[in-house]
Amino acid sequence: MDYEFTIIVPLYNEEENLIRVEQELKKYLNIAHKRTRVLFVDDGSSDKSLVLIEDICKRNTAFNYISFEQNQGLSAAIKAGFDYSKTPLIGYIDSDLQTDPEDFNLLLEHIEEFDLVTGVRTNRKDSFKKNISSTIANLIRRSFTQDGMDDTGCPLKVIKADYAKRIPMFKGLHRFLPAMILLQKGKIKQIPVRHYPRIAGTPKFFILNRLAGPLVDCFAYLWMRRSYINYKVIQKDE
User: Fold this and answer.
1) pLDDT in tens, 70-106
2) Rounded to two decimals, what is the model's pTM?
3) CATH of the domain at 177
4) Which of 23, 28, 51, 116 has its CA 20 to 30 A from that of 226?
5) Total structural domains within the chain
């Protein structure tokens, strides 16, 4: 089968969630607007996550995985997913399933006209402390990037592979995917999506890394923006 869309699932120590991830993504594959495959990216898990995703991929032909030797962080996992995807469209979703795979179809409706379509979590089901820290982090990021995005932390996105593969990712840059598309003169759009409470597993982000991390990453982004090289090939000799 010629797939059109790859869903990247970055994960680190999510053994309690993975069977539910398999079930929900299998349901989505039956209704997806594009022929879809799934790519797990195991970020050096120390629990049984890798064993579980190996089994999941053996019993589902549309599921594949890669695994890191050691934990490298979310930006590295997303970057690896971009690098190993072979479809013209790429998306990603967190393995905690606080967003719904079915909402990929909402984003795919707009991907012909835009180069990145990102979700905006409505009626968020996180704790007050998490919501406040995310709001402050988004304000900090938006003041630096001027990207107009309300919720770049939403773990539900669709991006054209040509743009994704030109993003020079480094630690923390996953927060700036819309801004990096704008640096490529691409077009971006945000769409409201559903949000659910985490029902299994352990959150990997806390107050300190939700506030201090984004502030430090903003300065890295400013350096990237000043140094970024943008080009588009219009003709080549095959």
Assistant:
1) 999 998 999 999 999 999 999 999 999 999 999 999 9
2) 0.81
3) 3.90.550.10
4) 116
5) 1
